[in-house]
Amino acid sequence: MDSLVRFLGRLSDKAAVVSSMAMILVVLLILVEVVARSLFNTSTMVADEYSAYFYVVLVFLGLGFTLKTDGHIRVKAIWSRFGGRGRAFLDLAGATVAMGLCLFAIYHAVPMVREAYQLNMVSETPAETPIWIPQLAVPVGLVLFLLQMVAFWLEALGRLLESDRS
Questions:
Q1: Which of 97, 107, 117, 151 is within CB 3.0–4.6 Å of 8 for a Cys-Cys bond?
Q2: Which pLDDT does position 2 carry in this prediction?
Q3: pLDDT value, residue 92
Q4: How far is 65 from 62, CA to CA, in rounded Å?
Q5: Is the CB of residue 53 less than 8 Å from the CB of residue 123?
Q6: What's the rounded Cα separation, in Å, for the pair 80 and 139?
Q7: Contact call for residues 113 and 140 (beta carbons, < 8 A)
Q8: Contact, 102 vs 22, CB < 8 A?
């Protein structure tokens, strides 16, 4: 179980690297656009569009790492009132609900991407980007988030079982 949790953690770390690269690309695109407009009185014509696409990558591929590093917002007012066993139980319950919601989102995200691909949908911009390409970040990021949620659930289960032994 520990090796699975470590593997899923490394997977989240790798997704976080891609997420970070997407953030760098957003900044670079905006910088290039500002320079192009200010100095050369022209535009890249795609900076807004691609910045939005990279932002989607940034958000969705960063979900798992954010969970791994306890970065998601949790209401700890109730959680902090419990001891180790109670906290583990609340984490298990919360992760179970979150996994269900994540599965629901994946269930709807995959057909969204498939439909965009099958219908050859493109953006209504000069770049005419195939929409399925940036949309793919949504189900991929959700699957990675779900996997990290499984690791979180397993850790909480381990804490709960350990408290039973004490």
A1: 151
A2: 87
A3: 95
A4: 5
A5: no
A6: 33
A7: no
A8: no
DSSP string, the chain: -HHHHHHHHHHHHHHHHHHHHHHHHHHHHHHHHHHHHHHHS---S-HHHHHHHHHHHHHHHHHHHHHHTT-S---HHHHTTS-HHHHHHHHHHHHHHHHHHHHHHHHHHHHHHHHHHHTT-B-SSTT--BTHHHHTHHHHHHHHHHHHHHHHHHHHHHHHHHHHH-
**Domain count for the chain:** 1
Cα–Cα distance measured from residue 104 to residue 110, given in angstroms and rounded to the nearest whole number: 10
Could you read off the pLDDT of 20-52 as tens digits, one per residue?
A: 999 999 999 999 999 999 999 999 999 999 999
pLDDT at 79: 83
The residue segments making up the domain with residue 96 are 2-165
d(CA 152, CA 83): 18
Token readout for 73 is 């917002």
- Positions in the chain whose pLDDT score sits under 70: 166
Name, in order, each residue with C-beta under 8 angstroms of 43's C-beta and a sequence gap of 6 or more: 33, 36, 37
